[in-house]
Amino acid sequence: MNQTEGPELEFDSAPGWSREKALEVLGIVQVPFEYPDGKCQGYARRREIAINPVAALPIKTLLHECAHCELGHTAAGEVNDSEFTPRNIREVEAESVALLVGSALGLEVGEQCRGYIQNWLQADSIPEKSAQRIFGAADRILRAGQDIHE
């Protein structure tokens, strides 16, 4: 068995919200994790996400990677630096979405998310445009996984 193989991931569940349904509605496909870097929790490419089989918090990582897709960070391929949205802002946006969605689903992700956001934000503030994008993506991800769409 190599580093990227392992048991099926166990995801926390939230009543009234389905990970599978969210991925389907959002048009995101979960693919096998194929990164050799053991520190990498997950990644997103175009409309595909991969979660490390030994990720510390698989559901938070899934939400973070879905956020990259929904925020348009992966439109040109793999998440990478761009002149339009600096990497630190992309990471803050994605993790903020994971924080909002995870909290709304009753998952205990706050402590880990806040530390990640603070690390990437470097005592700066979140731009207004980013805040609007964060709330929009969080809303889309939450609605996509609901049992009943309104």
| Portion in helices | 40-55%
| Biggest pleated sheet | 3 strands, mixed
Number of discrete helical segments: 5
Number of domains: 1
Order of helices and strands: HEEEHHHH
Give an overview in words.
The chain has helices spanning 19-26, 58-70, 87-104, 110-121, 128-144, and strands at residues 29-30, 42-45, 48-51. By secondary structure, it is mainly α. The chain has one domain (19-144). The protein is globular, with a radius of gyration of 15 Å.
For the structure shown, list the relevant keywords.
single chain; 150 residues; mainly alpha; 5 helices; globular; disordered N terminus
Brief digest:
The protein contains five helices and three strands; from the N terminus they run H-E-E-E-H-H-H-H.
Topology (SSEs and partners):
Blueprint: H1 19-26, E1 29-30, E2 42-45, E3 48-51, H2 58-70, H3 87-104, H4 110-121, H5 128-144
Parallel strand pairs: 1-3
Antiparallel strand pairs: 2-3
Helix pairs in contact: 1-5, 2-3, 2-5, 3-4, 3-5
